[in-house]
Specification:
Layout: H1 2-24, E1 34-38, E2 47-48, E3 54-55, H2 57-69, E4 72-76, E5 85-86, E6 92-93, H3 94-100, E7 106-111, H4 114-117, E8 121-122, E9 127-136, H5 154-177, H6 179-188, H7 192-195, H8 198-209, H9 221-250, H10 264-269, E10 274-278, H11 282-289, H12 294-298, E11 301-303, H13 306-315, E12 318-323, H14 324-331, E13 338-342, E14 349-356, H15 362-376, H16 378-387, H17 414-445, H18 459-470
Parallel strand pairs: 1-4, 1-7, 10-11, 10-12
Antiparallel strand pairs: 2-3, 5-6, 7-14, 8-14, 9-12, 9-13, 9-14
Helix pairs in contact: 2-15, 5-8, 5-9, 5-17, 9-17
């Protein structure tokens, strides 16, 4: 019986020591109530201050866990700076490898994947994200062949060309018909036949349109009348076009900007924009696993940090692929030159959770804490604090401030130029009427005197008249 009592007492002491050790240290790896947490700096999730402390969504989450579980957490960044991937030699690197080797107790920011879940444990889902592309916002560039009516619509171009031809034709008629114009050409230039061609009339109109001097200006009243209104038409057209051009170049478009890619398939087929994502992460493994994304993975730029990916996106020509929380965070940061583009959310869904050692006793308490934070709404408030409310750029649906409210920009329409066009047409008709009056007046003033009836003049006079006639 004595040996049975000894065995029973020993068993009770062992159980007591085991429970005490689990209370003192949850993981059983260290001799204090401190849990080593692996995490990478990730804007919005975790950021290291100058004094060495951390801030962000993950830090606030750990603070909540400390208050609920009474556990102290110490953040330790992975030595290789990776989340976790299986190398070619079959060894796990990054935080996943540190969990396997029991160098850390838990890891934050890990995406749940099939390969990772075979070697480590995961908590319940912390945040639901999906893959998005972070690219530089396109400027006011005109795509395809739309540049020629971005400032002026097609009817305006047609009205300007019609006005040019109208004035050229009317000027050609005035040069040919008006006697005052013919005399002026002959007296000043001496080559009226050359100057009275239709091509030269168009050249006179174009010279006036481009504000260049010409070798001759109209001398007849009808020609000068027409050119006064032609100059007025040119001046007002330039004013309207200048205003429309300034509005086009300075005021942003009201609608969403045109982007060269909308989906990951577009990015794979695009030869101008290259993809970029984390090296050795779940994103790289995702695109390598799909045959349809082979070209995308072959052209991809592997970055070592979020800052590098964002910098490449701001430089242009690169689409940084990351989870939606990251793209949402940086697209709302000054200078507000980036935009987030999402593909099919169901195909690119990513579940972020807490990574734990296999069979870790932390799993149940962490799961219970996450569920409680989610039900209380505190988890959403933390996410909203760092991912949504911390934005520095105006949201697409929010009303602009009075100081930043631009005037609407629209191209020059035919109704804007219609009054001066009608005025020019009326002026051309009046110029032709004036030309007709000039012809009639010239015929009247230059009409020879009528011969007197009666006796025939003397021979000397007749001879003199014959001599004058022969001159």
């Amino acid at each position: 019986m004595a040996w049975a009592v000894v065995v029973l007492v020993g068993t009770l002491l062992g159980v007591t020591c085991t429970v005490s050790a689990q209370v003192t240290n949850v993981t059983g790896d260290i001799g204090s109530r401190t849990v080593i947490v692996g995490a990478l700096e990730y804007q919005g999730f975790l950021h290291k201050r100058e004094d060495g402390t951390y801030e962000g969504f993950h830090m606030d989450f750990l603070t909540e866990l400390e208050q609920m579980l009474g556990i102290d957490f110490v953040i330790q960044e992975p030595a290789d700076g990776n989340y976790g991937y299986l190398s070619e030699d079959g060894i796990w690197a990054g935080m996943v490898g540190e969990l396997i080797n029991r160098e850390i107790d838990m890891a934050l920011g890990l995406t749940i994947t099939y390969m990772r879940e075979r070697v480590i444990d995961f908590s319940t889902v912390l945040t639901d994200e999906h893959l998005e592309m972070l690219i530089k916002k396109p400027g006011r560039q005109i795509v395809r062949r739309e540049w020629w009516y971005a400032v002026m619509t097609l009817p305006v171009w047609l009205m300007i060309m019609a006005s040019f031809l109208l004035v050229g034709i009317v000027m050609f008629v005035i040069i040919r018909v008006s006697p005052y114009e013919n005399r002026a050409y002959s007296a000043e230039v001496g080559e009226a036949s050359r100057l009275s061609t239709f091509g030269h009339s168009l050249w006179l109109c174009f010279s006036a349109m481009s504000w260049q001097g010409v070798d001759y200006s109209p001398r007849s009243l009808s020609g000068r009348f027409l050119y006064v209104f032609w100059f007025g038409f040119i001046v007002w057209t330039l004013i309207l076009c200048t205003g429309a051009t300034v509005g086009f170049l300075t005021v942003p478009a009201a609608g969403p900007p045109m982007v060269p890619v909308q989906t990951f398939q577009d990015l794979a087929a695009n030869d101008v924009i290259r993809p970029a994502y984390f090296a050795g992460g779940a994103t790289e493994a995702y695109f390598k696993a799909y045959p349809s994304y082979q070209r995308l993975s072959q052209r991809a730029i592997l970055v070592r940090s979020t800052e590098e990916g964002v910098w490449r996106a701001r430089e242009g020509g690169v689409a940084f692929i990351a989870d939606s929380a990251t793209t949402r965070f940086f697209s709302n940061r000054r200078p507000c030159d980036l935009m987030a583009i999402s593909d099919d959310i169901s195909l690119t869904a990513r579940h972020l959770a807490v990574g734990l050692q296999a069979n870790s006793p932390l799993r149940e308490v962490i799961n219970s804490a996450i569920l409680q934070l989610r039900e209380d709404g505190r988890l959403y408030l933390l996410y909203k604090k760092w991912m949504i409310d911390s934005g520095e750029c105006p949201q697409p649906g929010s009303p602009p401030t009075p100081s930043a409210r631009p005037a609407p920009s629209k191209p020059l329409d035919h109704w804007d130029i219609m009054p001066i066009f009608i005025e020019l047409v009326v002026a051309a008709i009046l110029a032709l009427c004036i030309m007709g009056i000039e012809v009639k007046w010239d015929q009247r003033t230059s009409k020879p005197p009528q011969k007197k009836t009666g006796a025939a003049p003397s021979g000397h006079s007749a001879g003199q008249r014959d001599d004058d006639t022969n001159v």
